[in-house]
Amino acid sequence: MALPNDTLAKLRDIVGGENVLSSKEDLIAYSFDGTAAMQSMPSCVVFALTTYHIAQILKLANTNRTPIVTRGSGTGLSGGSLPCPNCIVLCTVKMNRILELDRANLTLLTEPGATTLQIADAATAAGLFYPPDPGSMKISTIGGNVAENSGGLRGLKYGITRNYIMGLEVVLPDGEILWTGNKCVKDVAGYSLRDLFVGSEGTLGVVTKVLLRLIPKPAAKKTMVATFAQMDAAAQTVSDIIAAQIIPCTLEFLDRTTIHCVEDYANVGLPLDCEALLLIETDGHPAAVAEEAAKMEELARKNGAMAVRVAKDEDEANKLATARRSAFSALARLAPTTILEDATVPRSELAKMIRFVGEVAKKYNLRVGTFGHMGDGNLHPTFLTDERNKEEMHRVEEAFQEIFDEAIRLGGTITGEHGIGMAKKSFLPKFAGVAQMRVMRELRRALDPKGILNPGKMFD
Questions:
Q1: How far is CA 186 from CA 67, 171, 189, 192, 298, in A?
Q2: What confidence tens digit (pLDDT) does each residue in 246-268 have?
Q3: Candidates 3.30.465.10, 3.40.50.1820, 3.20.20.30, 3.40.30.10; correct CATH number of 98-216?
Q4: What pTM was computed for the model?
Q5: Domain spanning 220-328 has what CATH number?
Q6: Distance (Å, rounded) from C-alpha 277 to C-alpha 272?
Q7: Mean pLDDT value across residues 23-46
């Protein structure tokens, strides 16, 4: 349903007519995000240019009880930025300036529409390092990373987005502007409201500035690929690496299906005669890197690695990393609908979980490719299907129900990176339990009593 003309007029007064989209043709591109088989039309799309714009838009929406769905680049994989009926999509991609890079305090202040790659490049240009690297980092925005608490390939050693956020400017649902955090390394004054907004999926406020922590750039790195005839051998190699007190910056895996798809797509020379592949990268002081790389190669061979290929230079290392980053795109070429999910279990249970995914796919007669972050137990079972086939989609839903139930049973979680959004909210109560659900609902109600921010996401 279209918004009242007077509301549209007020929105145009706030941001300018060129920053308000309301025709059906313009809105289609904003009716979905990266989540498969989900679509819903908004009433309009508004591009904010300043914090003041967002404050005024939220004041108007709060007064009229108009739903607001905040959106960055729309790369999310849980339906978090999917429009709800009669909503305003508040798009922050035009707020894309890096406002300050403070070398003395190792911080970077940015608007929410800057891409993750833009931030990483700015840090690199200053001789510094911003580690979080979600697979969509070339186009995902930092505001979306904050909303979803995004992870990435380097999460095992360096952590996730939350670990690099020192401060946030947030506009609350009634339009009030709040700043939480600062450049101090130590600050325990009051509740950590900063952490409350990280991972809140746009349900508590709209992030308008992000103060990030940077670190010194590692002096050296080494990348290698190890291939195995069995997934259990790859998993044991990971366990042995961690037991040897080595924490690689990247420890990724691909299964046979994904390896073949990636090689066909990217042509990077991956071996095709294996059941599992580990992409391993270590970084730090050159001497430590050389020692760790040698030890990890030794452990891989001890566990029966078919081959260990060490990248001879930066170019080859980048190609190997690109192979892992292209896994989703490669699998997406095989079927009309690609459903990329995300479940996490303790590392000790990862091989068991991967086998379980394969058994479930066989049980429901589905095609699946599995890849992910073996170092932190986060796997991405990716079902290749067709959303037009309702019977098959029902089988996919049943398969995921079993997968998430098993992840919980093994002491894991229903999402390690992608968030709850629309896609997983039915699974959240079983995982979180009664007390957590009550506290989350009360927090949300306290900050957004009229329920205008991203309604229907995470929980009703």
A1: 37, 24, 9, 12, 41
A2: 999 999 999 999 999 999 988 88
A3: 3.30.465.10
A4: 0.95
A5: 3.30.70.3450
A6: 10
A7: 95
